[in-house]
Amino acid sequence: MPPKLLVGTFQVEGKVIEDLHPIEAALLLELPLPRIVAIMLDGLKEQKIIDIISKDPLIINILTSQKAQHEYEELFLSAFNSEGEVLSGIMADFFDKMLKSLQEKLWDADIEATKTFYRKKLLEAQEEAKKESSQESSRSSSSRYWRSYGRIENDPIYLSALALPLEISGGYSNFMQSAACYSGCFTPANIGTVEVCHSACHNACHSACHQACHSACHSACHSACHSACVSGGAR
What is the distance between the alpha carbons of residues 110 and 9, in angstroms, rounded to a whole number? Predict the structure, then answer.
């Protein structure tokens, strides 16, 4: 059983992180992982980087050898073999890396305020997704995926039948407590929120750092005092 960490927090009240990638925002809002995969697939398909050959099992065809615009796209594409089939371990690594990146960005953020910000942004994306646009090529990677996020939220049926590896076929909480995520973050049992995991990890790290610094400082101070006493003739 993974060790349990005490939950602490270093949140700054009212601090909102406004530059999350849409995939990071989806993780923050705890969108089921298969729907996050659907966002990635839709964004890549819209750019004509992939075509979806089959949903069950999930098989894609990569249409270009050109490097994707964003590193997250490259990470996601690397989770498919030359036949377009999902590599479960690498797909789990993709989500693990996304979660670590998210935790690093949110370490002192006001989680609820940040969630509120992105819920509003998602509503805007849903409205945008309803509009047809002839300028898709000029969109940034982030705006494309916001549009895809909005499209997924608007249509619960769209790309809902994806057959994915067991460890990423469920929700965020299940993944956080799975062996696939074990090395990334020790999550308290029965709790799977970004806030708890990120706070627990940061609290443990901060505690270890504080203890190390305190020990080093105490040692240096003791040594200096001892030297001063000896040189001053104290017994």
Answer: 10
Mean pLDDT: which of 42-46, 132-136, 210-214 is highest? Answer: 42-46
pTM of the model: 0.70
What 3-state class would DSSP assign to 222? helix
**Buried b / exposed e across 45-71, counting CB within 10 Å, b at 16+?**
bbbebbebeeeeebbbeeeeeeebebe
Least trusted range by pLDDT, from 17-21, 69-73, 87-91, 183-187: 183-187
Per-domain boundaries in the chain: 22-231
Chain centroid to Cα 59, Å, comes to 24
The pLDDT > 90 percentage for the chain reads 47
Q: What's the mean per-residue pLDDT of the chain? A: 76
Amino acid at 18: E
101 close to 27: Cβ distance less than 8 angstroms: no
- The rounded distance, in Å, linking the Cα atoms of 219 and 116 is 46
Whether residue 50 contacts residue 63, with contact meaning beta carbons closer than 8 Å, is answered with yes
Task: List Cα–Cα distances, 30 to 66, 87, 175, 182, in angstroms.
Answer: 31, 23, 11, 18
Closest among 149, 163, 81, 157 to 121, alpha carbons compared: 149
